[in-house]
Specification:
Radius of gyration: 27 Å
Order of helices and strands: HHHHHHHHHHHHHHHHEEHHEEEEEH
Structural class: alpha+beta
Largest sheet: 5 strands, antiparallel
Shape: globular
Strand order of the largest sheet: 6-5-4-3-7
Number of helices: 19
């Protein structure tokens, strides 16, 4: 910390201080090189306020050298520099793009912070950068590396629409690889992208049809509003607000004779049996995923036991409305024809999209909605409604802790 402060101050103490700091770019310590690079980048503007061209040239020359640094953290910083410098470079100056191409080639396909730095560095020139990167890392869509697929996802240029569609519809790719491209396609704000998503959603036996539909319904009122997506959906028989069939799903009331559990602090003191908990947790599968089992509705419990204390887990089960996880708040939708639908609103546009217990997703046309009310209680059933006792809860907690 003290050394970093010294570096930062020295870089702003005239040419001698700047020179001493610049020499540390050759340090064997990754952290030192990172701090030095940041300090020099900041001091460039202070030293050469009136000579912008020199500042840019000096910064880019340094960035080009550091683009080969062995540290991903340093290279991330170089990528961010390219985003800062672009507004001052003429179109004929391609050095910034060339540096980003060099950085892209060192992306391991996993470092999301590195990927985001590349994206920010490509601000206002994403199409240009993608074109340059694709010439050295791209090729036929079906043979893309994971690294290049992630870069294409982050930059999502209009030029990649056909490649995105080809990968989405390629059954030889994994579900995750195809889903990545589906998401990238959804963020391309062009008529061609909207048309490609319609084609994907209409493809027979496409395994992610529901997700493609979600994107169409989500984008038809914003980025793709000018392209009559709803008209296209009607023509293909994908969605017609006048023909949507809704299912009433209400939270069951708590029985008047429901057994009352002891305070959660007392339940937390009970000794749980993980073997019994493994069987008892089956009741949770209707709303939660635990490993490979269950439904993606409530929070995933696969690592919940290792992340939280026993008290927190016990209270989450025994008193579900005491603390509701962020993003899992419930809403109650009432329709004009008297239906009540409870669940989590995942899109409040037109149509409103609500995810109900059991994982059922329903699209509710706005013209059919009478009211939407946020619920003050959890969508999770009370323990008595699930047939859970204090000991059963302790057993489930013991099992979650054992995972």
């Amino acid at each position: 910390y003290i050394a970093a402060r010294a570096v930062w101050l020295l870089a702003q103490m005239g040419e001698e201080g700047f020179g001493r700091v610049a020499a540390l770019l050759k340090s064997k310590d990754d952290t030192v090189r990172l701090v030095v690079y940041r300090a020099l980048r900041t001091s460039d503007g202070l030293r050469h306020r009136a000579t912008t061209s020199w500042k840019i040239n000096g910064t880019l020359t340094r960035a080009a050298k550091m683009a080969d640094d062995e540290s991903a953290a340093v290279r991330r910083e170089v990528a961010l520099t390219m985003g800062n410098e672009r507004t001052q470079l003429g179109k004929e100056d391609t050095r910034g793009v060339e540096i980003l191409v060099k950085l892209a080639q060192k992306f391991d396909g996993k470092d999301r912070a590195y990927l985001e730095a590349l994206g920010l560095g490509s601000t206002r020139k994403g199409a240009e950068v993608y074109d340059a990167i694709s010439k050295v890392m791209g090729g036929p869509a079906e043979s893309w590396s994971d690294a290049f697929a992630w870069i294409a996802w982050r930059l999502h240029p209009a030029a990649a629409v056909n490649d995105f569609k080809a990968r989405i519809l390629n059954p030889k790719l994994s579900t995750e690889q195809r889903k990545l491209m589906l998401t990238a396609l959804a963020f391309v704000p062009t008529r061609e992208a909207a048309g490609a998503m319609l084609e994907v959603a209409h493809t027979k036996d496409f395994p992610m049809k529901d997700l493609a539909m979600w994107w169409l319904l989500n984008r038809k009122g914003n980025d793709w509003k000018a392209y009559d997506v709803e008209g296209g959906m009607k023509a293909l028989g994908l969605y017609d607000p006048d023909k949507v069939k809704l299912t009433a799903i209400e939270m069951p009331p708590l029985p008047k004779d429901a057994a009352k559990l002891p305070p959660f602090a007392e339940i937390a003191k009970l000794k749980g049996d993980a073997a019994n908990g493994k069987n008892a947790i089956a009741v949770c599968y209707t709303c939660h995923r635990v490993g490979a089992n269950g439904v993606d509705f409530g929070p995933d419990l696969s690592t919940f036991g290792k992340q939280q204390t026993t008290d927190i887990i016990v209270q989450a089960i025994a008193e579900p409305s005491a603390t509701i996880s962020h993003g899992f708040e419930g809403s109650e939708v009432r329709t004009r024809d008297g239906l009540t639908i409870t669940g989590m609103v995942v899109s409040s546009g037109d149509p409103l999209i609500i995810k109900c217990m059991g994982g059922l997703v329903q699209t509710v046309p706005r013209k059919r909605i009478a009211s939407v009310t946020k619920m003050t209680k959890s969508l999770m059933s009370e323990p008595s409604q699930l047939g859970l006792t204090a000991q059963t809860i302790a057993d489930i907690v013991a099992y979650l802790k054992s995972l």
